[in-house]
Amino acid sequence: MRLFLSVKLSEIKGFGPKRLALLEQLNIHSCEDLLRYYPHEYLNYSETDSLKDAGDGDVVTLYVHILSDPSVFYLKGKSMVSVRASDATGKLTLRWMNQPYRAGQVACGMDFFVHGRLSRKKGTVLYNPQIEQTARGIVPLYSLPKGLTQSVFRSAVSEALSCTPIAEVLPEELLERLHLLPVREAIRMIHFPAGRNELAQAKYRIQLEQAILYFLAVFSFREQAKLQNGYAFRTEGLLETYLSRIPFTPTDAQLRVMREVETDMQTPAPMNRLIQGDVGSGKTLIAEYALTIAAACGKQGVLLAPTEILAEQHYRTLRERFHDACVLYTGSLSQKEKKAVLERIENGSAILTVGTHALLSECVHFFDLGLVVTDEQHRFGVQQRARIEQKGIRPDVLVMSATPIPRTLALLLYSDLALSIVDEMPKGRKPVQTMFVPNTRRVAMYQYIAERVLHDERAFVVCPLIEETEDLERVSAVSVYQELQKLLPDCPIGLLHGQMKDDRKHSVMEAFRDGTYKILVSTTVIEVGVDIPQATYMVIEGAEHFGLATLHQLRGRVGRSDLQSYCYLLCSKLNAHAKERIRTMVQTNDGFELAQKDMELRGYGDLFGVRQSGEGELSGFIHSCTAEVLERASAAANEILQSPTLRNNELIRLATERYLSATQIARN
Known about the structure:
Layout: H1 17-25, H2 31-35, E1 41-44, E2 59-66, E3 71-75, E4 78-87, E5 90-97, E6 111-119, E7 125-132, E8 138-141, H3 150-163, H4 172-177, H5 183-191, H6 196-225, H7 238-244, H8 252-266, E9 272-277, H9 283-296, E10 300-304, H10 308-322, E11 326-329, H11 335-347, E12 352-355, E13 369-374, H12 382-389, E14 396-401, H13 407-413, E15 418-422, E16 433-436, H14 442-453, E17 458-462, H15 477-487, E18 493-496, H16 502-513, E19 519-522, E20 535-540, H17 548-555, E21 566-569, H18 576-587, H19 591-602, H20 627-641, H21 646-658, H22 662-666
Parallel strand pairs: 5-7, 9-14, 9-15, 10-12, 10-13, 11-12, 13-14, 16-21, 17-19, 17-20, 18-19, 20-21
Antiparallel strand pairs: 1-8, 2-4, 2-6, 3-4, 4-5, 6-7
């Protein structure tokens, strides 16, 4: 059973070889794929704003008259198209960066609906606006490659809708009970909605169908996994021995999760457990114990980290326990160093390997891999995590995440995973005090921090960009670094960002760790896992550009000792959503509370995790999927699985086909 009968894309008017090649970049190979490639957002041209009422940073839709022919400038190989325009209440400039074709679309005397973010910093400018010459109500926008315009893509979708039969997937009884639109009507409304209510109904129908198929795939994998056999680890006396060797007492939550992991590893069925805990809650200690169990039984363990900085940090910690049996494998090693490490991994003398994505390469062969630990699991694509697990024979799997989501939602989204929550912070930790700092107090704040870090403390300063760009008015790490060098000449300051060579990044982090640098200006490269107990100040420049999850992760880089720590949030402009995020950050340190608020503000984002697998149809609407939709879909999927009719079995097969491999999806 397929959703659509096969119709060739080449039959659609205007689609020759060049445009078909562009569609292939989007993984669109048929009309089925085309109709399932949903808009990522919409412009509502039936409701326009007034320029005089719009503030700096506001996203607006205006109806404007073009007052000049376009001017085209080039700077450092980058183009800028600029025209003057006005609405009924004022004048502004429309400016496009690296879109030279815009010069052929606009001319003096023309009228347009325009949509974009308004800047009032250097005049009144609308950067990179979307434009439409006629009002068309709600207009879909798609994520498209260069060379494929919105209008051409919309025309293709419209023609595909008119000539493609669409088969219903969900059982008729389910459609009636849940009051769902027929699939053909829903898909038409998704692409070309007549109004907000129609769009909401269509989104609900498509979201629910996607979620039901997702849960069918995941639940099917869960049942299959119960039938597999792995390795049963012997753990007698290991926990007591392990606890006697660490210089502190774990929290009750850590001990509880250690025992849960131990119980999993004792059974022959492969462990598949997610450890979720707030930043600084001590998840790494639990992973270390799991690796200790594997080593005690002669099995190799691997710890996969998303960045070299975090991998090196884990390596330093684990080498103290595993000594020479622990090796580090990253992309920055020399060929000679890589060869030596690979030989030890393959002959089994390396009982524990810590590394980055470099471990996924085909040249890495384990002697007897028994345990895979993935830190910050959301940073790895589903294909990547599956690849490392395939280097062993059904190894136990432990994934860790410091991105909290409410427990009820976690139980739905990670239905195949045993879930452990570390809901207690280590004793002696003081909550980080978070404050919004107005620009009028910015210089005084930095001068105060410079005085404090001379007493063997450290300060992070995080910026959203590496360098200033013309099209984004955001604070850059390079400009702040240069500014602070002048403002604080007696304070040693370092600079860190992702474009540096790996050896340079390593040396900068070490200099910050040992106190050679007292202040480290950085991008979000330090967001994940970095643990420097002396760091007590976190300054986040341009905080309005970060979501709550990132802000909370950054704040988690301080407050990792018994010293009082502080997080200062600085903003250049604040719209309503940004104000709400900043207010929430100031009010609470609870990651789960922040996650709930983040979902209310932004929807459920990529929590399904299937986007990373290349399934384009999920990329648009799973973003706004609600807990209600997930709960209904989960219940419906369970009903279908418990009623093994011919139609339901075919639906399960379709679900696993659509989402490639339930094995890979479920572990996201």
